[in-house]
Amino acid sequence: MGMAAKTRPGVVLIADNLNSPRSLIIHIPITRQNRGSELEVPLGHLPFLDKESVANVQAIGSLPSVRFEKLLGVLPAADLEVVKQALVKACAL
Question: Which domains does the chain possess?
Fold first, then answer.
């Protein structure tokens, strides 16, 4: 199943100062399809996202850096912490 060719927001997780041999960015997609999972972090209160938006931690992935078009905004530290907690739970870290 392919993905629709449209711009999709996401939470970027890779450190800026990481000296990686690959040009891949680790990200968590943001969607408006909230299924009520504990691995979906509500982000709709942020001014640069739709009010229904959630970070779907279960769909973590990586994409080439050229696929990232622009910065929509910055996740506040409190929201990033909730995303990290969901990631720890999802990966049993």
Answer: 10-14+21-88 (2.30.30.110)
